[in-house]
């Protein structure tokens, strides 16, 4: 077993070291998107303001998840956990909101 | 008792693991499972926010206009910086550079401190403006009767987020000390990686908190 | 010392996990998953009897139609504390933290769980939560029902909601950390050769349970935290007068609390699979489908919580969707019942105590589950919601199912855990006593509910008295049936016949490779394992007389 062969215990393949400029690039992107989202917030785009703000936030989140949290370079199991976590959040949101968005339909209970 | 062989005396490999790879992967899986539950924990509160925004849209518009976007944007930037320094700390640990890793962790803690100070300043402003539910509630803005709900969630969410940051800073101290003692290396950096994952998650929560509270009503202001 | 394999000499008992260290520090600071399992077993037994005490008191009140034993406020506290202790401090942790903690690493061929120190922390967190709740109980109790519905719990209740809420919040973390530990262990610490579809079905059930623990419990934490904040800081979160929606609490609460019932039953199903397989000397019929059913139950369990809210004011469309989805959950559960039945068919069946409990489980769980379809039906549930029909439904599953599985598992694994046999004759009798007592307690409650007796009332119309008296009589028999096993199991630790090898000639690494009781680190060398799960055609020959190969 492994403990009898010291050479097998340490694993030089374990660390996937990303170049410095990858981190700096994502960092710059995050800062730019922050400025953009604050700026756009002042412009009246009607119903689009919210989806745009959330989309920008999602892009920022994806960058953090894929690069800073190394998910892009991780195995299938990590992907499963990330997707699973957000899928479950989706279940919580969609089923609960299905109650609120359909309450007024029948008896005018209102929101 | 388990027989002790020379090969087992490696202090960076826990006794119940067969290899560094197993230790690494098990810890990674464990941390991601933990983060999945954090997603659900904050998610529950985001759901509550969404429901109340749906039920009281005017309160949420008015509420967001009473928050200061300058502080909010600065704090967002500060947290992004902290994420960068944390990612660089992990990278240093991967390269076996313990002192460098500890320095980057220190930078992360510093950024966290700045964030919390700014948050504290914001909270004290809310106190002076009478916008703290139940404790100091006398809003000058009376057009939105359910404004209290907006502020309840503002404090609950940012407060819980801040608590998570404080825990993160405490963990940073532990990991930084271990890094200085040369504990981490190319096959044993998972301790720093796991801290990094936690910290990036804290950043992720704020990435959504910021627009949801500070920005969404701004175009109507 | 070398690691060369040597057969253990016949009479020499080498150090096992029980003898590897004495004194309170070796137990209270242990990181050995087996000792932690025993610590949990002790604390859980304590909480079970506290919850049971409350059940005794409320069944005593219900002997007579008038509310003459307790005031209504006190009665409210009785059923609340009964529910809280039984659900959060007994049922949810039960099998996972005791048998799961003890046997998961053994069944995987691992030396411990992935995070041994986290495991110990989980136990201490569990105790801390228990302490808050006991404090709530001793300072006068909580009267909101274990469901903590707002705005009563958040605004109007005059009882110790904050302490109880804190207790449950804290205990939730114990659950989450156990789930995290199990998930990491199952993914990454399986012995070489042990592929997913060779895992014992107990492991599959623990995995599915852990997924629910990790994904569901945090939302309970959110709901309880918000109630706590509203009460402690006077902030209006669920207060309708200040714009709050009480039903939001119910969404958050039941998002966890429905999947929680699957946390409670899945490990029991896992134990039943192990026991039925062993005492039929056969692989479980449809092994793969049963394994996948566990995952299906975990997944579907998250999609149905609104069936607790049919009459709450929730949208009727949401109600219909939840009703339809709730029917689906019956499918994987039924698949398991069919699989167990098919395993018994033409099996070499024997009726030792664990098997008696397992058979009881199959029958009673089926009845409980079938009545679940009744209450999943929106139209029917509108009439029986908040009646004794619901109470009977869930007690059939939780007591008739889960508690019997727990007792069966305890008896099954007892010789392996302690190297001692319990007295089989008394044990068999007690299992029958439990079965009879249980049915007498809860069958009348189906009728009571159908006839209209509401739950959570200390007084009722006279025409319901006969059924209530029968129920209370059954409860006293059930109590005896629970008490006696505690006594003879304890007795067996000192005076029971010794068990050295494979007490039941059961299949699995925990039975065939690990010593009895296991050594501190389970295996001197991590084994390789390529046998199919529960493959009784390939059994390592060990008998009770010769000590097992202590590898």
Any overview of this molecule?
By secondary structure, chain A is mainly α. Chain A contains 4 helices and no strands. In chain A, helix 2 runs antiparallel to helix 3 (49-68). The model of chain A is unreliable at 1-8 (pLDDT under 50). Chain B is mostly helical. Chain B has helices at residues 20-55, 57-65, 69-94, 98-129, 147-180, 190-215, and strands spanning 131-132, 136-137. The model of chain B is unreliable at 1-7 (pLDDT under 50). In chain B, strands 1-2 form a two-stranded antiparallel ribbon. Chain C starts with 23 loop residues before the first helix and ends in a 39-residue tail after the last helix. Chain C has 18 helices and no strands. Chain C is mostly helical. The interface between A and B is large, with 62 and 61 residues.
Give a quick summary of the entry:
The complex is a heterotrimer of chains A (111), B (221) and C (551). Chain B has 221 residues and is mostly helical.
Sheet-strand content of chain A, in percent, reads under 5%
N-to-C span of chain C = 15 Å
**What structural category characterises the helix and strand content of chain C?**
mainly alpha
Gross geometry of chain A: flat
The average pLDDT score of chain A comes to 86
Judged by helices, strands and strand pairing, the structural class of chain A is mainly alpha
Radius of gyration of chain A: 22 Å
Number of helices of chain A: 4
Q: Distance between termini of chain A? A: 64 Å
* Unreliable residue stretches of chain C: 1-12, 545-551
- The helix/strand order of chain A is HHHH
Secondary structure: elements and pairs:
The complex is a heterotrimer of chains A (about 110), B (about 220) and C (about 550).
Chain A: H1 6-9, H2 20-41, H3 49-68, H4 76-107
Chain B: H1 20-55, H2 57-65, H3 69-94, H4 98-129, E1 131-132, E2 136-137, H5 147-180, H6 190-215
Antiparallel strand pairs in B: 1-2
Helix pairs in contact in B: 1-2, 1-5, 1-6, 2-5, 2-6, 3-4, 3-6, 4-5, 5-6
Chain C: H1 24-28, H2 33-61, H3 72-91, H4 94-108, H5 116-138, H6 152-156, H7 161-188, H8 201-233, H9 246-280, H10 287-300, H11 316-328, H12 330-344, H13 353-376, H14 378-384, H15 388-418, H16 424-451, H17 465-495, H18 509-512
Comma- or semicolon-separated keywords:
heterotrimer, A: 111 residues, mainly alpha, flat, disordered N terminus, B: 221 residues, two-stranded antiparallel sheet, elongated
């Amino acid at each position: 077993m492994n403990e009898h062969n010291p050479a097998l215990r340490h694993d030089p393949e374990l660390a996937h070291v990303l170049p410095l400029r990858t981190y700096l690039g994502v960092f710059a992107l995050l800062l730019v998107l922050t400025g953009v989202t604050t700026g756009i917030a002042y412009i009246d785009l009607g119903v689009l303001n919210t989806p745009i703000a959330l989309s920008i936030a999602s892009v920022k989140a994806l960058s953090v998840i894929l690069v800073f949290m190394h998910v892009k370079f991780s195995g299938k199991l990590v992907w499963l956990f990330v997707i699973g976590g957000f899928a479950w959040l989706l279940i919580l949101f969609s089923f609960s909101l299905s109650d609120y968005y359909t309450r007024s339909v029948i008896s005018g209970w209102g929101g | 008792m388990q027989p002790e062989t020379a090969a087992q005396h490696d202090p960076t490999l826990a006794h119940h693991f067969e290899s560094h790879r197993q230790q690494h992967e098990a810890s990674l899986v464990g941390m991601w499972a933990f983060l999945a539950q954090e997603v659900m924990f904050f998610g529950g509160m985001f759901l509550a926010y969404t429901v109340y925004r749906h039920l009281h849209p005017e309160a949420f518009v008015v509420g967001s206009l009473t928050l200061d976007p300058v502080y909010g944007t600065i704090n967002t930037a500060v947290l992004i910086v902290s994420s960068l320094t944390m990612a660089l700390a992990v990278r240093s640990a991967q390269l076996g550079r313990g002192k460098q890793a500890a320095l980057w962790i220190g930078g992360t803690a510093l950024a966290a401190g700045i964030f919390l100070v700014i948050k504290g300043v914001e909270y004290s402003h809310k106190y002076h403006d009478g916008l703290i539910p139940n404790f100091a509630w006398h809003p000058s803005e009376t057009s939105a009767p359910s404004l209290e709900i907006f502020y309840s969630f503002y404090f609950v969410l940012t407060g819980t987020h801040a608590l998570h940051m404080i825990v993160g800073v405490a963990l940073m101290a532990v990991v930084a000390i271990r890094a200085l003692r040369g504990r981490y290396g190319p096959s044993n950096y998972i301790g720093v990686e796991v801290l990094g994952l936690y910290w990036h998650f804290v950043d992720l929560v704020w990435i959504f908190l910021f627009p949801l509270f500070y920005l969404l009503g701004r175009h109507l202001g | 010392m070398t690691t060369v394999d040597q057969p253990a000499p016949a009479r020499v008992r080498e150090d096992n996990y029980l003898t590897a260290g004495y004194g309170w520090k070796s137990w209270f600071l242990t990181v050995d998953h087996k000792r932690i399992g025993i610590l949990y077993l002790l604390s859980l037994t304590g909480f079970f009897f506290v919850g049971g005490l409350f059940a005794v008191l409320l069944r005593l009140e219900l002997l007579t139609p008038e509310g003459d034993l307790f005031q209504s406020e006190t009665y409210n506290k009785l059923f609340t504390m009964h529910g809280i202790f039984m659900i959060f401090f007994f049922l949810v942790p039960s099998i996972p933290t005791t048998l799961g903690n003890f046997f998961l690493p053994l069944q995987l061929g691992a030396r411990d769980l992935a995070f041994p120190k986290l495991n110990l922390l989980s136990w201490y967190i569990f105790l801390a939560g228990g302490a808050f709740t006991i404090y709530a109980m001793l300072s006068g109790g909580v009267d909101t029902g274990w469901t903590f519905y707002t705005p009563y719990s958040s605004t109007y209740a005059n009882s110790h909601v904050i302490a109880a809420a804190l207790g449950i919040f804290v205990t939730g973390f114990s659950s989450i950390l156990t789930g995290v530990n199990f998930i990491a262990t199952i993914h990454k610490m399986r012995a070489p050769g042990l592929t997913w579809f060779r895992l014992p079905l107990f492991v599959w059930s623990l995995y599915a349970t852990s997924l629910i623990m990790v994904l569901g419990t945090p939302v309970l934490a959110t709901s309880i935290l918000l109630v706590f904040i509203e009460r402690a800081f006077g902030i209006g979160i669920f207060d309708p007068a200040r714009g709050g929606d009480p039903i939001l609490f119910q969404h958050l609460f039941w998002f966890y609390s429905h999947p929680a019932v699957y946390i409670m039953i899945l490990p029991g199903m896992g134990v039943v699979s192990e026991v039925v397989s062993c005492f039929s000397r056969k692989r479980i019929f449809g092994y793969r489908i049963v394994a996948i059913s566990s995952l299906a139950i975990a997944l579907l369990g998250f999609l149905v919580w609104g069936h607790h809210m049919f009459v709450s004011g929730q949208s009727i469309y949401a109600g219909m969707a939840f009703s339809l989805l709730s029917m689906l959950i019956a499918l994987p559960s039924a698949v398991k019942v069919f699989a167990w039945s098919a395993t018994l068919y033409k099996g070499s069946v024997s009726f030792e105590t664990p098997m008696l409990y397992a058979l009881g489980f199959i029958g009673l769980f089926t009845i409980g589950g079938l009545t679940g379809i009744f209450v999943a039906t929106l139209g029917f549930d509108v009439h029986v919601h908040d009646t004794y029909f619901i109470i009977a439904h869930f007690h059939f599953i939780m007591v008739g199912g889960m508690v019997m599985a727990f007792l069966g598992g305890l008896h099954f694994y007892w010789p392996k855990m302690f190297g001692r046999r319990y007295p089989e004759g008394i044990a068999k009798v007690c299992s029958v006593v439990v079965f009879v007592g249980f049915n007498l307690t809860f069958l009348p409650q189906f009728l009571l509910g159908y006839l209209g007796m509401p739950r959570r009332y200390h007084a009722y119309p006279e025409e319901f008295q006969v059924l209530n008296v029968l129920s209370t009589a059954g409860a006293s028999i059930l109590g005896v049936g629970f008490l006696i096993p505690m006594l003879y199991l304890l007795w067996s630790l000192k005076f029971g016949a010794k068990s050295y090898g494979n007490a039941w000639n059961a299949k699995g690494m925990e039975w065939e490779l690990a010593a009895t009781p296991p050594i501190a680190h389970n295996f001197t060398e991590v084994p390789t394992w390529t046998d199919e799960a529960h493959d009784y055609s390939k059994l390592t020959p060990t008998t009770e007389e010769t000590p097992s190969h202590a590898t």
